[in-house]
Amino acid sequence: MQEAGPMDDGTTRYLGLDVHKATITVAVADAGSQPTLYGTIANDPSAVRKLVAQLGRSAKLSVAYEAGPTGYALHRQLVGLRVECQVVAPALIPKRAGDRVKTDGRDAITLARLLRSGDLTPVWVPGEEDEALRDLVRARYDAKADVLRAKHRLSKFLLRRGVQAPHGVKAWTVRYQAWLNQLTFPQAAAQVVFEDYRATVRAAEERIRRLEKDLQRCAEDSRQIGLISALQALRGIGPLSAVTIVAETGDLRRFHNAPAFMSFTGLTSSEYSSGTSQHRGAITHAGNAYIRHVLVQAAHNARHAPSVSWERRQRLAGLPPDLVALGWKAQLRLHQRYRHLVGRLGRPKAVTAVARELAGFVWAVGQRQYQEVAAA
C-alpha cells in the first residue's frame, strides 16, 4: 500500500538536505523568501515521514541531497511518499570563490537555494536491480585490487629477503608459480610469513573466480542481457566488460548523443580557452572510472589489424547482421585511427583517443538495441 503524500495547493517548497549516516540537516526555501535552516532530524524512515508530513501540508515538496556513501535509500523513500527528489552531483554544485566556511547548515541552505533556482545537476538513480548488479561489478574490482595488494606484499617480502626469481622468469607466470612452490626459508618465522602471503594470494584469486562466475550468472538473468550480448559485437569488449558498461551506465538512452556519453566516461579533453588563446589539456577524468578503465583496456586491441578470431565468431553467432556489420565498421575505424595517431602522439594518447571513439560506438550499439526492443 502506497503511503500518503503531501498536499499541493499549487506552491512548491524546496528542501535542501545534508545527509549523514545518523542525521539529516534540513533547510527550506519558499518562493520569494530567503532559505532558512529548519533543523536536524534523525536519518531514519519514521523521522523522514514526519518531516514530509509537517512541511508538505500546504505545499508541494521538492527535495535535493548530494550523492554520497548513504546511497539511494532516502531517494526511494521520498519517491514512495510522492515527493519530487533529486540526488545531485557534488562536483557540479556551484560554489562561491571566496567561501571558505563549510557547515552542515550552510550546505543544506545552499542546496535549497540552488534547487529553487534550477542550478543543480542530478545524477542517475539506479533501480534496485541495477544497483545490485553494479555492486557485484564493483565487488569484483575490489577483489582485483586485493589480489594486487596481496601479490605486492609477497614480492616485497621476497625483495627484503634478497630472493629473486631466475633470469627470464616473469612474475606470476606458470614458471614463476613453480619456482615459488620449491622455495623454502631456513628460519621458521620467515617460512610462516611466506606461506601466509601465498595463501592470501590464492584466496584472493579464488575470490575473483567465484565473483566472475556469479557475475556471469546474474548477467544472464538480467533484463539487460540483450544489450550485454549486443555490446560484445565490439572488439575488445567481452562478457565482463559488457556487464560493467551496462551496470555502470544503466540506460544509455539518457545520453542524447555520443559526445554526451563520451563526457560521462571522462575521456574527453579538458580545455582552457580565452579570447584568441586556445589550450586543450589531458582528459577530464570527470566521469565513471569503471567504464573508462574498460574502454581503455578494449582500445588496446585497435593496434592489431582487423580480424575475426574464433572466440569472436562465437560471440557474434546469433547477433543480427546489422550489429555484426557495426562491429566490423568499428574495427576498421578504430584501427585506422590508432595507426594515424600513434606515430604523432605516442601510444598512450593514441589509445585514449581510440577509447573515446569506442565510447561513441558503445552509445550507437545501445541506441540500436533500445530501438529494437521498442519495435518488438
Account of the 3D structure:
With 376 residues, this protein is α/β, with parallel strands linked by helices. The chain has three domains: 12-117, 2-Layer Sandwich (Nucleotidyltransferase, domain 5); 128-221; 226-375, no CATH class. The protein has helices spanning 45-55, 73-80, 104-117, 128-160, 174-181, 188-221, 225-231, 239-249, 258-265, 289-299, 310-316, 321-345, 347-375, and strands spanning 12-19, 23-29, 36-42, 60-66, 84-88, 269-274, 277-283. It has a five-stranded mixed sheet. A hairpin with a 6-residue loop joins strand 2 and strand 3. Helix 4 (128-160) crosses helix 8 and helix 12 runs antiparallel to helix 13. The longest helix has 34 residues, at 188-221.
Summarize the structure.
This protein has helices at residues 45-55, 73-80, 104-117, 128-160, 174-181, 188-221, 225-231, 239-249, 258-265, 289-299, 310-316, 321-345, 347-375; strands spanning 12-19, 23-29, 36-42, 60-66, 84-88, 269-274, 277-283. It is an alpha/beta fold.
List keywords for this structure.
alpha/beta; Nucleotidyltransferase, domain 5; 3 domains; 5-stranded mixed beta sheet; two-stranded antiparallel sheet; 13 helices; 7 strands; disordered N terminus
- What is the rounded Rg? 26 Å
| Stretches with pLDDT under 50, minimum 5 residues | 1-8
What number of structural domains do the residues give? 3
Fraction of residues in H or I helices:
40-55%
Per DSSP E runs of 2 or more residues, the count of β-strands stands at 7
Through-space gap between termini: 32 Å
- The total of helices stands at 13
Mean pLDDT: 93
* Structure class: alpha/beta
Largest sheet: 5 strands, mixed
Query: What is the percentage of strand-forming residues?
Result: 5-15%
Strand order of the largest sheet: 3-2-1-4-5
* Helix-strand sequence: EEEHEHEHHHHHHHEEHHHH
Bulk shape: globular
